[in-house]
């Protein structure tokens, strides 16, 4: 389970001006405000699109660093697809924030140990949970405190969180950020990531309705009626409308 640093009672720990800098970032998708900040020994990034300050229900993605998936297009996880889908959704909406969290690599164990878990998955058929514990490593030690701090700094009232992981909602709220809704971010399963997605659903409690109940690794997994948010489906409003959370 994640070991989050808690916000002190009564408010967010601020970000010291010496630990934050911002400029425009012109990308193929459009122009974002790039807010780089330091927190707890890591350097993170918030990409802000459109006007977010003072608004409620801002579309937000808290994205955990995955060098292999985000930069090099690894298919064994769906991180790269989710990064693309989240940015597309934010731009389509006209405003939103993507917080890119460093130090989250391998759910917080780091790149070298993540690659060690990948080797155990390939050679011994272990899933992402058992491959970590077999190495004596924690399953998830990500801290969402820095994300909460930058969202508070950006003056965001409440968020609609792009995620399939219910723990992220609880964690963000424990840091004082109100989550008005969770918006599913469903990447299409493929032969390479089916085991990864199945473990997330069955062992970590992620809400992944697009993943078939009985894994068929050698068949292309596209269950009928699944609300898969691929580039074509991403234009449809329904998967992005979100499910309001009730207290
Ligand atoms: N330990 C370990 N971590 C992995 C592995 N593959 C990907 N990761 C990391 O998993 C993190 C992403 O977490 P996920 O559990 O996929 O998804 P999530 O961020 O909790 O949930 P969503 O918001 O729905 O995307 C990234 O930091 C990846 O580096 C693996 O095989 N082993
Ligand atoms: Zn990944």
Automatic annotation (TrEMBL):
UniProt binding sites for GTP: 61-65, 82, 105-107, 128, 163, 168
Alphabetized GO MF terms: GTP binding; GTP cyclohydrolase II activity; lyase activity; zinc ion binding
Cross-referenced InterPro entries: GTP_cyclohydro_II, RibA, RibA-like_sf
Catalytic activity of the protein: GTP + 4 H2O = 2,5-diamino-6-hydroxy-4-(5-phosphoribosylamino)-pyrimidine + formate + 2 phosphate + 3 H(+)
Residues reported in the UniProt entry to bind Zn(2+): 66, 77, 79
Class of this enzyme: hydrolase
Pfam families: GTP_cyclohydro2
Cofactor(s) needed for function: Zn(2+)
Pathway membership, UniProt: Cofactor biosynthesis; riboflavin biosynthesis; 5-amino-6-(D-ribitylamino)uracil from GTP: step 1/4
Record-level GO cellular component terms: cytosol
Region (Disordered): 1-20, 214-247
Function of the protein: Catalyzes the conversion of GTP to 2,5-diamino-6-ribosylamino-4(3H)-pyrimidinone 5'-phosphate (DARP), formate and pyrophosphate.
Annotated protein name in UniProt: GTP cyclohydrolase-2
Source species of the chain: Streptomonospora nanhaiensis
Native organism taxonomy: Bacteria, Bacillati, Actinomycetota, Actinomycetes, Streptosporangiales
């Amino acid at each position: 389970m994640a070991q989050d640093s808690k916000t002190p009672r009564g408010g967010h720990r601020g970000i010291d001006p010496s630990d934050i800098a911002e400029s425009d970032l012109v990308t193929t998708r459009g122009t974002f405000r790039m807010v780089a900040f330091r927190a707890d020994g890591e350097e993170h990034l918030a990409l802000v699109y459109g006007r977010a300050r003072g608004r409620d229900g801002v579309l937000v993605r808290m994205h955990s660093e995955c060098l292999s998936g985000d930069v090099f297009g690894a298919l064994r996880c769906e991180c790269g697809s989710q990064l693309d889908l989240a940015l597309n959704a934010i731009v389509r909406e006209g405003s939103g924030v993507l917080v890119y969290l460093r130090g989250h690599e391998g759910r917080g164990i780091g790149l070298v140990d993540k690659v060690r878990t990948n080797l155990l998955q390939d050679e011994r058929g272990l899933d992402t949970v058992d491959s970590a514990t077999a190495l004596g490593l924690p399953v998830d030690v990500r801290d969402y405190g820095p994300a909460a701090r930058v969202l508070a700094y950006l003056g965001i009232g409440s968020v609609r969180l792009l995620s399939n992981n219910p723990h992220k909602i609880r964690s963000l709220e424990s840091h004082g950020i109100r989550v008005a809704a969770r918006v599913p971010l469903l990447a299409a399963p493929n032969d390479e990531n089916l085991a990864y997605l199945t473990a997330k659903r069955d062992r970590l409690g992620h809400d992944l309705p697009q993943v078939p109940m009985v894994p068929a690794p050698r068949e292309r997994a596209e269950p009928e009626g699944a609300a898969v948010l691929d580039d074509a489906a991403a234009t449809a409003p329904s998967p992005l409308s979100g499910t309001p959370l009730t207290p």
